[in-house]
Amino acid sequence: MPNAQDVFWLKSQFQPAIEKAIAGTPFSVDMIAAFACQETGEIWPALRRQGLPTSRILELCVGDTIDASATGGGRRAFPKNKAELLQAAQGDRMFEIARQGLVDMAAHIPAYRGAASRPDKFCHGFGIFQLDLQFFKTDPAYFLSRRYADFDAAVARCVGELKSALRRVGWQAKTSLTDAEMAGVAIAYNTGRYDAAKGLKQGYFDGSKYYGENYDAYLQLAQGVRFPAVETAPSRDARALPAAAKKARKAVKKAAPPASKAAKPAKKAVKAAKKAAKGPAKKAARKAGKGAAKTVAKRAKAPKKTASKRA
Question: How far apart are CA 79 and CA 87, in angstroms?
Answer without folding.
Answer: 9
